[in-house]
Structure formats: C-alpha cells, structure tokens
Sequence to fold (366 residues):
Amino acid sequence: MTTPVLLRFLEATPKKGWLAIACLSAVIATMLALHLFTPDGSALHVSDYAITVGGKIMCYAIVAVAMDLIWGYAGILSLGHGVFFALGGYAFGMYLMRGIGHDGVYQTSLPDFMVFLDWKQLPWYWSGSDHFLWAVLMVLVVPALLALVFGYFAFRSRIKGVYFSIITQAMTYAFMLLFFRNETGFGGNNGFTDFKRILGYDITTPGMRVTLFAATAATLLATLLLGRYLMTSKFGRVLTAIRDAESRVMFIGYNPLGYKLFIWTLSAMLCAVAGALYVPQVGIINPSEMSPANSIEIAIWVAVGGRGTLIGPVFGAFLVNLAKSWFTVAFPEYWLFFLGLLFILVTLFLPQGLVGLWRRLKGGAA
Fold:
C-alpha cells in the first residue's frame, strides 16, 4: 500500500450501524414494556427470569463490543479481558458485601467470609468500599490503571500478534490464582455472594431487577454509540490504519502508542462497567470469572458476530450464550466441543462472522 493510498484510506468513513442500533433499542424497549404492562398469565408477558437473563447477556454484549474495539478495529487480540470484567465485578461486589451489614449471618459489619476466617478488621484496600460513589470510582480506576500500565509497557515494546495474546492470557491466569487465595481478602474460591441491598433498596425485588436491566441496556446502547462515534472519527480511521499497516502509519507521522493505549484502556474500563452491572444481577462473583477459558469465549462471541462491526459482537454474545444455556442443560458434556467446533467453522468459513454473511447475502440478492 503506497502512502497516498493510505492517506485516502484514513479519510474513508463507515456509514452503517444506525439501523442495527435502532432495532436493538426497539427490542429492549419491547421487552421492558411486555414485562411491565402485561399480566403474569399472558402469553406475551416477559418473566422476571427472562429479565434477569437478558440483563446478564447484555453485560456480556458490552464486553463483546469492548473486545471488538481493540480486536476488530485495532487488530489487538486480547485473551485476558476476563480479568477487567472480574475486577469491575469485585470492586462493586465489595460495596455490596459491605451493604450486607448486620443482616449477615454473623451480625457484624465485616463481610461474612472475613468473620469465618477470623479476620478482626477490614484490610486497608477495603477502605471507603461502603460508599456507592467510591465503589463506582474504583470500578473505573482500578482496571484502567492495570490496563494503562500493562498496555504501556507492552505497546512500547512493540509486542503484538500471538505474543500479546499469550501475555494477556498469562496475566488473567496470574490474577485468578491470586484471587483464589483466602489471605488476599476477596473471599477465596467462593468469592462474594448473598448480596442484600443497593443504596438501601432490596436487590432481589422485581423493581430492582427491572432497574438493573434498564441500566444495563442504557450502558450497552451508550457503548455502541461511543464506539460508533470513535470509529467514524479521525481517531477510528487512524486506528484501523494502524491495524492494517502500522509501519506505514508511523512513516507518515502518527505515533501508534497513544492510539493503541487509549483504545486498550477504554476497552478495559467498559469491561469493568459490565462486570459491575453483572454482579448484582447474577448474585455472585468469584475467581472463575478470570479463567483464561472465559476470555477465549469473549473472543468467540466477537468472531461469531463479526469483527469490526460493533453490532455483530452483540448478536454473537446473545447467540452463543443462549446456545450455552440450552447446551449445558441438554448436553452439558458436549458444550466445550461445540464451542470449539463453532470457532473453527467461523474462522474457516465465516471470517467476517454472521454480519459479514448477512451483507454478502444481501449483496447477492440485490
């Protein structure tokens, strides 16, 4: 690719995406309306269980979009995004555990697992965790700092490709082993559970479930809009050019480090927000969320939906997780085999995922 061609490429902007975002918004609004305004016995009623499952999968969809920003547009394949998701969940889970208070088993302000392990006081890093705004700040700051430091040294050293994927997987595995230890003060292998309240409101009430669902939906739509804004801007065009021809982008005067570090850190923060929304809806967070297998599954969601499309990873997250819900009940022993086969088939026959297939079929029909 010559430099003039690259310059013209930098000025090309994608135009699609609004219709898909509008359709997704309509589906979410319809679910809420059918849940709130139809009677329980109606065939059209969306149950509390469906609202909870929908909220959980939307959290996964946020993570998938975050992965698409770095993999689909920047060409950075991370196999460690599960650690950012889990750190956001743990940061907000600390607030939820403090909120249990004297409603807990041991009738004390310490989390139950600390009393069980004979801890006498909270560790210093739990300071302020009983305040909602502090918890929200930690959800954003802790994963961002980890991503910023890790990304700075990795990108400055020009580590990329499979080598970057391997070290991100090593990072998440190291954090998983750390959080499994009881002495770290994060509940060991059991993690955090038995949450009671958010801002004084009972977390198990239908009203709170709907509120969490709506908050997750709003976050997902905001993530899609933010992603589309970035990727249709000059920043996004430069980022995509870095993905396709990094050395030539450097030759014409752009420094890839800042672009890659920004999108990497933003992606980590989005994952953390998804983790914070996930924990109160599912009711538990433990170190298994940091397992390398979970991070690989995130990449599969993006691959199935379609890299570099923003909306494709949302569909991929929904389809794979709905298939997982069915498979793990009907054929639990075959789920991992099916997941591996799905990834192989998509890689070989649908390199642009389901969105790419749809576009080809639409183009052929036209």
